[in-house]
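Handout, section 4.2: multi-component inputs.
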Amino acid sequence: GAGVSQSPSNKVTEKGKDVELRCDPISGHTALYWYRQSLGQGLEFLIYFQGNSAPDKSGLPSDRFSAERTGGSVSTLTIQRTQQEDSAVYLCASSYTTGPRKAFFGQGTRLTVV
Amino acid sequence: QKEVEQNSGPLSVPEGAIASLNCTYSDRGSQSFFWYRQYSGKSPELIMFIYSNGDKEDGRFTAQLNKASQYVSLLIRDSQPSDSATYLCAVNPSGTYKYIFGTGTRLKVLA
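Output:
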């Protein structure tokens, strides 16, 4: 695609429910990143994929969070048993793995846990 | 010490002036540096990247990198009200592929 696409744009869920957030990166970008941005805060790194493998999961805040990437393309971030503190904008970015590795972001998924 | 530090602002400049945004980083081995612009309610948009010491110019934007002093800056010439946004500095530390972001500097360009 022309840009990074994320779905849904908005998600309201009840505390305790599971949610899945989807990211479709720019075609040809083998690197994919998930970040989280809470209201008025900076970007918090969650996980990095190179191809289908995730060499860096250091930012996942708890074992309720997991992510996978299949076919070297689409990625899904899953949050189990959501808590109110999970409310944030979840941003996905992709880049090439060579050169200056410029990362381009999708429009984000705004998650609200009520 | 935070890995990437920015003054949160707001930085207010009059229209037509030069806006100067600064960022310091802690990992001396960092190789790549990026500036993103984020409008309220929108996702970050890449506007500049730099990886060599010195200046890099692109239109009204100039990125400056000084690895010895571990700072990177962004100059915006002829600032316009449409430049009003939060500017995020991002650094790619050595040995990792992730980007560490500063908390951003809010810029207000006054008409």
